Amino acid sequence: MPTYSASVSAKVQGKRPEVIDLTTHDLAMHNSGFGGSRRQLATSTLQPHKGAKKLVIKNLRAPTTARVDQYYERIWQELDAALTAIFSGHSTQQPWELLYRGVEDICRRGETASADLAERLRSRCEAHLTGDQVLGRIRAGSTSATGPGGDGTVLRSVLGQWKRWSEQLLIIRWIYSFLDRSFLLKNSKTLQTINDLGISQFRRAVFVTSHSNRDDGDKPAVAPPGTRVLAGMCELVGYDRRGDERFDGALFKDSVTMLRLFGVYGKSFEPRFLAESHEYFLEFAEERSVSYGLKDYINACERLLVRESERCDVYNLDSTTKRQLRDDAHHILIEKYSSKLLDNGSVARLLAANDVESMKALYDLLKLSGIQKKLTDPWEDYIGKAGAEIVGDTARGDDMVVRLLELRRALDIMIRDAFSKDEDFTYGLREEFGNFINDQKNSSSWNTGTSKVGEMVAKHIDMLLRGGLKTLPATLLSDVKDRAAAEKSGLASTGDEDAELDRQLDHALELFRFIEGKDVFEAFYKKDLARRLLMGRSASQDAERNMLQKLKSECGSSFTHNLEQMFKDQELAKDEMASYRDFVSSTGRTSKAIDLTVNILSAAAWPTYPDVRVHLPQEVLEEITAFDSYYKNKHTGRRLTWKHNLAHCVVKARFDKGVRELLVSAFQAVVLVLFNEVEGKPKDEAVLSYEQILQSTGLPGPELKRTLQSLACGKIRVLAKHPKGKDVSDTDTFTVNRAFYDPKVRIKINQIQLKETKEENQETHKRVQADRQFETQAAIVRIMKSRKTMTHQQLVAEVINQTKARGAVDPADIKLNIEKLIDKDYIEREGGMYTYLA
């Protein structure tokens, strides 16, 4: 024991010693401060002190080393007994608090005692784990667990032992916590904490230690139980992939946690799991790529990827495992079998069926591997073939534009909902639409020599402007998403009828933009506009002017100049008729039978119409003559050409079931009034033959037959044909159908005027071709006049460039027109050069 010294001073009477040496001086008590000065003497057995006077206190207890060793040994025995009880699952004889104090006493003895205690604990735990209670039971279970499901049994056994050891280790850590804090943590570089020690010992016992068969020393060592643990975990994954009810999610999740704690997850489990998953993906893809169609294969791959991802998330697999598993699945299921996913025929069937869900799944699958752009090839192939089939279908020509718009609508929805508005697919769509619309091979089936699409787009717009939205199929109308997008962009909601009609006109214009030959569209649009204006068949004047403005914005004012003039002529005609009626009123001349309205049109702006000969009723002829005379007197030098084939009127007809007003063409009215001449005659005499009507009307045969067919063979039959039939022959006779009845008072029968005949259609195409020839020749002359000399290739290229706005010109046609200009001495050819002749 250390010695302590101190100086002691006291106040006494007289001179007193500065230091009291208990070995030599008498122990005295002085009176001063203690009530007296009487000295008491006592002898001391302590050694005499020499030198400076100081108080020295020494430990007088004799050393008891043997007793101390016995004390610490008794503590260890108590701790060892407690460990035995803990390992056996029993309660300790000593309270945990007392055991904790024993560990603390040993640790306070010094580092040597702490190190010895730590080593004893380590040996005791290792003996327990490698003995019969833990590793022995695992080995016994591993030996008996053979056949299917055996690895799962071993996995359960190991996990059960681990959970039991974890509970035991928790108690040990509490009892030995002072050792952890005071010694093991200070030496953490060379020693493990109790928790780390318990984990590493269990890991070595299960995943490292191999054991030989004690019954037969010649047999090779058996693999450690950890190998079967890994096999059991992969077996559980296999159950889950097959949908086997033997899959135990809790067991798998706890096993993953155990492996991660042991530090063998990344080294042992992950490589094996990924290798077995690789084989599974290969087998899965090979089997389903053969037996499944594209749609089923896509769905199967999508479900598999979702399940694999969910398994990684739910059972806490590492993110690196998930990433490697995902990449491997993408490579095998998508990239390796991309030829199946991108098969033109299979993709075309999904697109034709408007299977947005499957196409979205396909796009998302390909996007996972970054090859979604490759889908544009089958996408464009389908559009080109589907569009060419529609354009070349002569049997369904009237439905061409509706079918093209339905195709475009379906493809736009596909881009919006399946391809996430990918611009590459939008670009491919536009390119393919432009290709098949302007492909001369597709137009050649119509034998028109010009674009059939331009004609049909003009007729589609005519149908919209005459009949409105009711003429469209429901598939072309806007859906909820379209309306939301329109409102979001600040446009009128497509739920409004006018806004929806405007939207449908825009869709038609989108097709119009693809057309290179705008002249065909212009010719037919002008003809249809003229009919609508002259016959008052426009559904909305606002829509008409709106469409005109769209065309002006798209093609420029030169394109719409004549169309705008047509609207001006209509306004001028109204003023002219108002002036004429004032003139008639001022002269006192009136006609009670006829209310004449004349549209004065400028020949340059309006389409060209043939002159059809017809014998008008005398009353009508008189009114026309009067107006003609008035107009010529008012506008000196002008001449009127009457186009009776564009005229229409309202006639009253008396039937047995009442009077009806019939809205008919001029030719229909001329035929109907002929029956007034046989009115009142006996039934067998109130008949007019085809020949009689032909002579009386003076109409050409084909025109008369069309007219009679519309009156006697259509849906509304105000005349009866004998014999009955759909066609009119030269021997037919006609009577008034007195039994005719219709609930409406005014009935339209003049639809025949709105329908274009085959001859008129061909004539329009021929006129467009002729105009193209003249325009091509004019372009050649302009170019040669400015360039003077050019090679053939240069001249052809320049002509194509200048005339492309009006339509694609065939180089063979350009060559033909060059020859015509050479014949007319506009240019001459010398060798390979053309020279302009002034």
Automatic annotation (TrEMBL):
The keyword Ligase appears for this protein: yes
A Pfam entry, by short name: Cullin_AB
GO biological process: ubiquitin-dependent protein catabolic process
Record-linked InterPro entries: Cullin, Cullin-like_AB, Cullin_homology, Cullin_homology_sf, Cullin_N, Cullin_neddylation_domain, Cullin_repeat-like_dom_sf, WH-like_DNA-bd_sf
MF-aspect GO terms: ligase activity; ubiquitin protein ligase binding
Keyword annotations: Isopeptide bond, Ligase, Ubl conjugation
TM region(s), chain numbering: none
Domain annotation Cullin family profile: ranges: 452-712
Family of this protein: Belongs to the cullin family.
Name this polypeptide is given: Ubiquitin ligase
Protein's organism: Diplogelasinospora grovesii
Lineage of source species: Eukaryota, Fungi, Dikarya, Ascomycota, Pezizomycotina
